[in-house]
Amino acid sequence: MENIHKYSGKQLHKALLEKKITAEQIAKTYLSRAKEFSDLNAFIETYEDSMLKKAKQIDEKIKEGKPVGKLAGIPIAIKDNIHISGKITTCGSKFLENYKAPFSAAVTELLDQADAMIIGKTNLDEFAMGSSTENSAFFPSKNPWNIKCSPGGSSGGSATAVAARLCSIALGSDTGGSIRQPASFTGTFGFKPTYGRVSRYGLVAFASSLDQIGPMANFAEDIGLVMEVIGRPCDKDSTSHELPAENYFANNTESLEGKTIGVPFKFLENLDGEAKKQFEKNLERLKELKANIVDINLDVLKHSVSVYYIIATAEASTNLARFDGIRYGHRSEKASSLDDIYDFSRDEGFGKEVKTRILLGTYVLSAGYKAHLYQKAQKVRQMVVNSFNKAFETCHLIAMPSAPTGAFEIGAIQDPLKLYIQDVFTIGANLAGLPAISVPSGMEEGNKPLGLQLVGPQLHDVNVVESAAVFTSKASIPPNYDKEVNV
Amino acid sequence: MKDNWEIVVGLEIHAQLNTQSKIFSSASNHFGDEPNTNISAVCTGQPGVLPVLNKEVVRKAIQFGVAIEANISEASTFDRKSYFYPDCPKNFQITQFFHPIIQGGRVFAEVEGKEKEFFISFAHLEEDAGSFKHFKKFGAVDYNRSGAPLIEIVSKPCMHSAVEAASYARAIRSILLYLGVSDCNMEEGSIRFDANVSVKKYNEQTLRPKTEIKNLNSFNFLQLAINKEVERQIDLYEKHPDKDPKDVIQSGTYRFDAEKKQVFLMRSKEGADDYRYCPEPDLPPLIIKKEEVEKIKTEIPELPRQRIIRYHQNLGLSLDTAHQMVEQKTISEFFEKACNTCKNKKSLANWILVEFLGRLNEKKETFFSLNLLPENIASLVNLIEDKTITSRMAKQIADIMVDNPEKSPEKIVEENPEFKPVSDLSTIEPLVNAIIEKNPDSIEDYKKGRKKAFAFLVGQVMKETKGKANPQIVSDLIHKKLGDL
């Protein structure tokens, strides 16, 4: 088989079962690509030895006629805020630079049981706080479509790895858009499942009530495939849904006939430029696919960024309190008292954005401010939930852009508030716990991909992914990424 | 001076629930092991862990709630209480601040011979912290206790003396023990008391500033600390009668120094920590269905108060004896077992609480440390009842039993001829005759109707036989002789 990297994970798996290729060949191909494109800074670490070992085990099983898992032979990358037992989980932070995970995340276990081949850990904004990977303590990742540009974030390393075909599938985490915005920037599929559909056990928490692990891939079928493996109940995560794993693409639908798609036109009225043109084109494509487009009211989402930065930072300030230099992680050498350990270790271990958000979160929970800020934000969050519920009374899915712009150049946005606005269309799904996907839908000038976002009601994950696949058939998808790095 | 002042006390009782595993992890909930052996990724606050609520903890909490006739919340929630300290691995504690599992409730306790009712405001679940130890040049943390399940029981400010507070605390402890939900071991810290203390003039409508005395771990210290604190407050108010109470007593957290017998300020209210409570997003609301509560209601064992009433009404124990018997569950259970084969429950109670406990306390032993069998105590009482032995012999036999716990009283009697009462008329009759002859005055008295004289004569015969004569035979004989005269 030639051009292995141009195939989907599902196709590779099939070829493996048909003995047209070995797992070792696949592993070697992707490992050498990861090396070849290491300038993209997709990975924080790659696992050559353990990946090849896994590949050999799979080949052995196939040779002996033993059954193999659903993901056998598929190279998968994992965002470096998800644990693999015995490997380092940095979270893109100096604080955890040497932190060896004492256990595996539920998703890692499931991938391993399904015989996936883990290629490495991908770069991210420190503790998933950011929209560009520029907040990584190590390096920013580069957008393979235009290497001056950011791949978005915080799952930017995963997006780069997928778009550059350094793996078939990557896991990301999405707290306010951290899977969907980078997917949009890199012309890939990025799916944030229903809150509770994928276990968070072993994901280093940023904002627990918003965090969700999800897959990124170049093909919709790979999103479905990996969801069949990781989207299942977990007794280690109390917020996990009881619903058993579902099958994706059981019915081969080719149109969106009978589906009503809501569009919050008023909320989107400030959309402009290429993003606006693209979105309008996408609505036409949806109509061509026989979807019924209706106007819905989601005006409350104009508050979503404010609400998000109160709730997410409040939770983050408590979640990150455990990084104190006492038990693990960075401990300042300057410290000579207990208070010093706390102060200096956190000062030296955390980057600027993380400190900003911890301070903000501490502030919004403080006596005297909590009622005006945190508790009010919780009320608005409930209003967001109610608005979505009401909207879904009249439509099956909601369509919005994934991001207000295409990829921006690394270093171009210095004002953090301007970066926060990147998430304006994605945050709603996190606040309401809804499944949402970013589908590649074209390019804007300067070789910058743009995505369309489809959002469904809770637990309608299958519908969201399948509809995305249907849309793909009509969308102008970026060509398979090969070597066209420089524009 | 104390007479003008009304004491107002509320208690917060922290009791560890004795579940197999911890409240949010599968690590063992066991005291006294090597440091940092009963730990998991959850109880050391590793990144990426999630709490999973132990159902057994919930069941035990519901049992307690039912026992104090409280409302069990259909939906309670968990919250994060933030503070930085090395014993707190996440630097927040998971507790129930906004919606606790148990609301209201009451208990009855005996205060100086009278029964009094006390009210609970609420009780909530939370995780215990580890323990931080200071050494000369470093500090070290043991996380074995980190994540141990706690129930915090918060009373209303309904106690008006240190004695009442101690009685209430004893009643709560005994309920927890009878339910078997907590070991309530003071030395191991599995039950701890915080006392909120204030005083006010009787005619005042509102409460004056309160102080909180933390971490009292015995009933004695609880009582002592409250008394000391009350004295201190009254003293200060009387010294500054014209000052605003807020300026006299500094609200805040205090600790009790048992050696100095004084309370010391730890931190004032002004400098109080802001715990920044917020909902725990990793735990959904705890939903408890009514049917579940009803089912647990049917499984509640006999509680101390019911048992006191039963001992009093059905077994004829005095209220005081019944209280004493019930106070320690293990002793009460020992008594219950002995009752199965004993002919005189009242006498049995006395033998257990006075005779045996007295002997055991002297030796610093217990029924259980010596493995004394309840049926043997019952047999001893039965031997007295059957008049096989006299009470005096029984006391000597009790001495032997404590030294030789493996021997039954029957065996002891069999092995020792002196414990065989003399019932032989040919031996007793000459003795009786001699005593009657020697005590003409007593006989006169008896004839005048003085009952004491009769008992004196019996006593004299018993003395002659060193207590071995069968007292029934002796008294029958004397009756007969005196009637003959």
Describe the secondary structure blueprint for this structure.
The complex is a heterodimer of chains A (487) and B (485).
Chain A: H1 9-17, H2 23-36, E1 43-46, H3 48-63, E2 75-79, H4 106-113, E3 117-122, H5 156-163, E4 169-173, H6 180-186, E5 189-192, E6 213-217, H7 220-230, E7 260-263, H8 273-288, E8 292-295, H9 304-319, H10 338-349, H11 352-365, H12 371-391, E9 397-401, H13 416-420, H14 427-431, E10 436-444, E11 448-455, H15 461-472
Parallel strand pairs in A: 2-3, 2-4, 7-8, 7-9
Antiparallel strand pairs in A: 1-3, 4-6, 5-6, 5-10, 9-11, 10-11
Helix pairs in contact in A: 2-3, 5-6, 7-15, 9-11, 9-12
Chain B: E1 5-16, H1 55-67, E2 71-72, E3 75-76, E4 79-82, E5 92-95, E6 102-103, E7 106-111, E8 114-127, E9 131-134, E10 139-142, E11 149-155, H2 162-179, E12 191-201, E13 211-216, H3 219-239, H4 245-248, E14 252-257, E15 262-268, E16 278-279, E17 286-287, H5 290-298, H6 304-313, H7 319-327, H8 329-339, H9 345-362, H10 374-385, H11 391-403, H12 409-415, H13 425-438, H14 440-447, H15 451-464, H16 471-484
Parallel strand pairs in B: 13-14
Antiparallel strand pairs in B: 1-11, 1-12, 2-6, 3-17, 4-5, 4-16, 6-8, 7-8, 8-11, 9-10, 12-13, 14-15
Helix pairs in contact in B: 2-3, 6-7, 8-9, 8-10, 9-11, 10-11, 13-15, 13-16, 14-15, 15-16
